[in-house]
Design a protein that fits this description.
alpha/beta, eight-stranded mixed β-sheet, two-stranded parallel ribbon
Length: about 300
Amino acid sequence: MTDRTTFNKDTTTDEVLDGLDLTGKTVLITGGTSGLGQESARAMAAKGAKVIITGRNMEKAQAVADGIDGDVSVEELELGSLASIRAFADRVLAKHPKIDILINNAGVMASPYMETDDGFELQFGSNHLGHFLMTTLLMPALGEGSRVVALSSSAHQFAPVLFDDISFKTNAYDKWAAYGQSKTANALFALGLNARLKEKGAEAFSVHPGVIQTELARHMTEEDMAMFSGGIESGAIQIKSIPQGAATQVYAATAPELDGKGGAYLADVQIAPVEEGTEDMSKVRPYAFDSDAAERLWAVSEEMIAAV
């Protein structure tokens, strides 16, 4: 059996799950049709979990599900549409009275300025608000022992939540600042959610998966790619394989040693230290781990959704 005290940036999903049995567990993964979501689904289905993956293209989603050994089903979900999210939540709750693991994996990165169906800036609207609404609607199915994992990123270091101009109505749009604030929001959401799940005996975590070559990079320009290539060549950025990248979210979802440590931000398959001004990808900045900011974000998120 794998020594669980030695997990690090090179650890894979199968190593994280070595010796664990997920039989009887229901797992829901957003964005499960490629990359980290698909790998998480594969790894947990192999350990006996009943896995539900979401996608916008149902034909593609079903093909992915059919290619995974185990009990894997699909549900249609567009995180940029509040109507789609509400319909999705109704269907899931009708079919699944208990969700043991919810991994909020789907996301968009560094897109040009676009808006969701409801008029929110796309990155904040999909990465945070969509998952916020979906998760809160699914709260009745989150019970004793359930875990929610929110995919944040070291990109949270690009920007805190810009509470005075979340939608870039005043300041010029910056795709990396927008992405950064959405990833900070993901971390703060896990913190706020964990506080609300305690009475249910459930917990929430946020994670930085690492830098992985997936479809998340579809909006990146040649200039963006050149910047990342420079970081890779200098050694400042290490590219992980998809099994290595998915390991931290699977660890957050399943590791027994994390019981009672909800709210934590994880990187490289361990709890990340909090450090002011850090650019270290394995650490989290204090503004993304601030309970007051988490409560402010929760209130603002409710107001934004209610206003639609």
